[in-house]
Design a protein that fits this description.
Layout lengths: L1 H25 L14 E4 L2 E2 L3 E9 L2 E5 L4 H8 L4 E3 L4 E5 L10 E6 L2 E4 L7 E3 L5 E11 L2 E11 L9
Parallel strand pairs: 5-11
Antiparallel strand pairs: 1-2, 1-6, 3-4, 3-11, 6-9, 7-8, 7-10, 10-11
Protein name: Lipoprotein
Length: about 160
């Protein structure tokens, strides 16, 4: 009889544990979750860059969606966002709301098909090239709901060459 009581107690404990887990899971606050990945704000002196979404995997309300996009150079080539005009050596800042998990933020410059990760200062800033020209970057982050990337273009111009947007 003791064996039957132990088995019954084990079943009851398992059922309560599973029910408790489901109740906690069902009652998670959805207000903290985002239906879509957050978009970055790439800023320099009050101006912001136009960004284009790249590959991502995101979960929301028990559903996960992965979008496998072409590499940033191809995405930028198709979308053709307007470049953010900056001075040589400008320091750009990237912010997300909400911010990505610690140390998951990356910024990379694309030269052809080569991806060169940039050194971040203060966790979310990097220095653009000194040479005038057009430069393609992408920024990626991870959150508890998934990961996402965005591509953008900057145009480095000498101070005397700045033209209005």
């Amino acid at each position: 009889m003791k064996k039957v009581e132990r088995i019954a107690a084990l079943y009851v404990a398992t059922a309560l544990l599973l029910a408790g887990c489901q109740i906690g899971w069902v009652h998670q606050p959805h207000s903290q979750q985002l239906a879509q990945p957050p978009e970055p704000v790439i800023a320099w002196q009050g101006k912001t860059a136009a960004t284009v979404p790249t590959s991502s995997c995101w979960s929301y309300e028990n559903e996960a969606v992965c979008k496998d996009m072409a590499a940033p150079p191809e995405v930028i080539g198709e979308q053709k966002p307007k470049p953010l005009q900056v001075s040589p050596g400008a320091v750009l800042t990237v912010t997300f709301s909400p911010p990505p998990t610690d140390e998951s933020l990356t910024v990379a410059q694309w030269i052809g098909t080569k991806r060169i990760e940039q050194l971040l200062e203060n966790g979310n800033q990097w220095k653009v090239p000194e040479q005038p020209g057009w430069y393609l970057f992408d920024v990626r982050g991870q959150w508890s709901q998934g990961d996402a990337g965005h591509a953008f273009v900057i145009e480095v111009r000498q101070n005397g060459q700045q033209r209005p947007l």
